[in-house]
């Protein structure tokens, strides 16, 4: 994950434009310099994105959403923006390695409008157009868990 993206999210928690009782308390207690140091620390940690597809296959519907999207529902491929393997870029966050619960909660925040989106950010539209079952399947896949439990 990119340090600039992480710092931006910590700043959003600190100023209240992104909500999470836990994260707001911690972010507000830190100076901007401390938030930057934390962002740089976590950005330097290796992720598991390179191992995402090793030894397993997503079910066909989830694989199609990740790799091709579903333009009939205005859903681009997840990996077209978040990078091959979901590892993100300088401006777009990694989606690989996210805990299942965290991913689902964030998608539901976009679905309900409780997570702000920036100009040109399509995530609210995408989240609203995915079914809860699809969101859960994508979350399990990206967390490197079996899509069938």
TrEMBL record:
InterPro entries: Cyt_c-like_dom, Cyt_c-like_dom_sf, Cytochrome_c_Oxidase_Subunit. Residues 64-146 form the Cytochrome c domain. Keywords: Electron transport, Heme, Iron, Metal-binding, Transport. The keyword Methyltransferase does not apply. The keyword Iron applies. GO terms for molecular function: electron transfer activity; heme binding; metal ion binding. PROSITE patterns: CYTC. This is Cytochrome c domain-containing protein.
């Amino acid at each position: 994950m990119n340090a600039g993206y992480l710092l931006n999210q910590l700043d959003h928690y600190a100023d209240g434009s992104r909500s999470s009782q836990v994260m707001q308390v911690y972010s507000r207690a830190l100076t901007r310099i401390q938030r930057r140091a934390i962002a740089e620390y976590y950005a330097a940690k290796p992720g598991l994105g390179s191992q995402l597809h090793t030894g397993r296959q997503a079910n066909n519907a989830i694989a199609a959403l990740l790799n091709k999207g579903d333009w009939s529902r205005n859903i681009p491929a997840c990996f077209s923006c978040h990078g091959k393997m979901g590892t993100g870029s300088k401006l777009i966050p990694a989606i690989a390695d996210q805990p299942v619960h965290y991913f689902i909660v964030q998608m539901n925040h976009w679905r309900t409008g409780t997570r702000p989106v920036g100009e040109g950010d399509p995530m609210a539209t995408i989240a609203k157009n995915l079914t809860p079952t699809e969101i859960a399947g994508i979350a399990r896949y990206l967390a490197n868990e079996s899509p069938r439990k």
